[in-house]
Amino acid sequence: xxxxxxxxxxxxxxxxxxxxxxxxxxxxxxxxxxxxxxxxxxxxxxxxxxxxxxxxxxxxxxxxxxxxxxxxxxxxxxxxxxxxxxxxxxxxxxxxxxxxxxxxxxxxxxxxxxxxxxxxxxxxxxxxxxxxxxxxxxxxxxxxxxxxxxxxxxxxxxxxxxxxxxxxxxxxxxxxxxxxxxxxxxxxxxxxxxxxxxxxxxxxxxxxxxxxxxxxxxxxxxxxxxxxxxxxxxxxxxxxxxxxxxxxxxxxxxxxxxxxxxxxxxxx
Length: 268
Hints:
Blueprint: H1 7-10, H2 22-38, H3 41-59, E1 66-68, E2 71-72, H4 73-103, H5 106-112, H6 118-146, H7 156-178, H8 183-199, H9 212-218, H10 222-234, H11 241-247, H12 250-267
Antiparallel strand pairs: 1-2
Helix pairs in contact: 2-6, 3-4, 3-6, 4-6, 4-7, 4-8, 4-10, 7-10, 7-12, 10-11
């Protein structure tokens, strides 16, 4: 059977597949990064399980004890449980994940792709946010089912502060993960940083029994300041102007962490 060709067929341009849209590229990369995060046992455990461990051993035994008029102990520590879920992921999970990308030279391969790295950055941020929201939901569900939440749980300011804290902690995690060290060293640094900040905030154990000098130093622990402001907003107590002022320390720290992380990343 003879197939007749026309001159126009010979010189017709080749038909190429239509390039994917920016949203499609971002969606695919986001799903990939989210799957990789869920394969990180440290990220998953410390975001989803560790806050529940704190709740079981510290919150549950004293949950219904009154600490102020209309305020129970569980109400007092609920914001810090939420903060624990996101702090673990941002300060420990994110740096370790970035360090492993460098160790396996995945970041180098990403740079060879014909795609702007902004897609990777956005996908990583969105995947971190998705896992953070899941951790927040788990804590809120457990506390809400067994003890009930205060009406202030619907306060937009409360959740705005939560997400601002996620941004600040992620900036710190990005800087630590950008340090020119191997994954094991980054894991050690991030673990020390998290536990010093966390236990120094008084969220797990009171710090009032520490020497006065240490208490004075820990007053400038930004995580302690976030937890105190969140606790006051959630329990309906007045937040002093000094507490708000100390909270703004997070802003220059975030900017310095992001700029320092970008500088270290570009040097490689």
